[in-house]
Amino acid sequence: MRTIKSVSKLGVVLASLAVLAAGFTSSASASTTMIPVGGSGDATATDTGPVTVVRTVVVGGMPGWQIALIAAVAALVTAFAAVLAERTRMARRRPVRPAA
């Protein structure tokens, strides 16, 4: 039983390190793709060139209320599964005998 607990703790530590590594790699790729504004780097330059207008067009996709509904249902299903798992664990547990 002691070995299972230590393996479980090791799994938690490895999963935490994997999430941490994923966070670092996503932020590193975002920081290396930034484009500096201004071109020549001269702070006194007033002509920066033509202004580009960016218009975002959303075609299709999923409305926000559907995403919120999916998240709420997922939370309820997870809570229900946690309650069932706890009740199953408590039902299989040996009753505590009082000291004589």
Which structural class fits the helix and strand makeup? mainly alpha
On the 0 to 100 scale, the average pLDDT is: 77
Report the total helices: 2
Rg value: 27 Å
Written description of the protein model:
This protein has helices at 2-32, 64-92. Helices cover 60% and strands 0% of the residues. The relative contact order is 0.04. With 100 residues, it is mainly α. The model has no long low-confidence stretch (mean pLDDT 77).
What is this structure, in a nutshell?
The protein is 60% helix and 0% strand. The protein is mainly alpha-helical and 100 residues long.
Keywords:
2 helices; 60% helix; elongated
Write the layout of secondary structure elements.
Blueprint: H1 2-32, H2 64-92
